[in-house]
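Work Package 3 (structural annotation) set out to generate three-dimensional models for the target panel prioritized at the project kickoff. During this period the team completed the workflow that converts sequence records into discrete structure tokens, so that structures can be stored uniformly alongside our sequence database. As a representative example, we reproduce one entry of 320 residues exactly as it appears in the project archive.
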Amino acid sequence: MTVADEYLYFAAHEARDVSPAYERLAYHVASDAELLERLATLPGPKQQPNLLFAVVRLLGGPVTDPGEFRAFALDRWADIAAQMLVRATQTNEVGRCAALLPALARFSGPLALIDVGASAGLCLFADRYAYRYGSRTVGAGTPLLDCTATGFTPPTRLPRVVWRAGLDLNPLDVTDPGDVAWLEALIWPEQQHRRDRLRQAIEVARADPPLLVRGDAVTDLPALAAKAPAKATLVVYHTSMVYQLPDPQAFVDTVRSLDAHWVAVESPAVVGPGYELPPPPSEALHNVLVVDGEPLAWVRGHGQALTWFGPETRSSHSLT
């Protein structure tokens, strides 16, 4: 896939009907030879639309008008490229907890959680937020996460979490204004509801900071897992992270070597051979919820919709 193809795909499958501003920008970049030439000088993982647009926003640039965006990008390219090289799309989208919750509800006993690619650790608090699946609400905390749910019965209670930790090459600090500014820059411009719930989730994390460890997803995960309480059920999970790894299979092998459950909300590419996925509900970007290697549901990119296609025998199990 060329850089132009990546931006065309982003416009058509991720930004369409979600962010008109980013859809316009992505189509513009895909047709702009000078911008594409500059993006091509960056490593592949650093060429992605989300990263470029967020860095421009962080630097105070315009993202609603393609012409103004282009002028800013070309004039400030040295600054933009420098930021893109040292930053990653650590979105820390708490809406994805709405997809994690049905998975966590499948496991018995008190839980110990490890989020790999944890960013600021906001997805470690699935037990503190509230969820609205259609007409059913679970929990009473903030933020309230809305998720259109199809094909499954939501849990009736939140899990009991006794230990939580995150692993990231560059963990973000919710008490650092610069880190918080980056998290906000990653929110798409029209999505004030995501910005509001990000701020609410940051307050949750500030009140009870999780253990965040700077380290590699492959080499440092076993040592962190060994710190989990022995009497708790360990769950290792990650959301939209695997594509950033240099060797995804090494990570999968590491997770499977642990005495832990494994939950992934990732691209369909994370699903191994032997499973034939049903067609996704629409042409929009969908990830797959995978629990202990078994694909169970389609999930929209920010957790705003979940379509269950796997067996539901345990999906409505409640934890005490």
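The chain has a mean pLDDT of 93.
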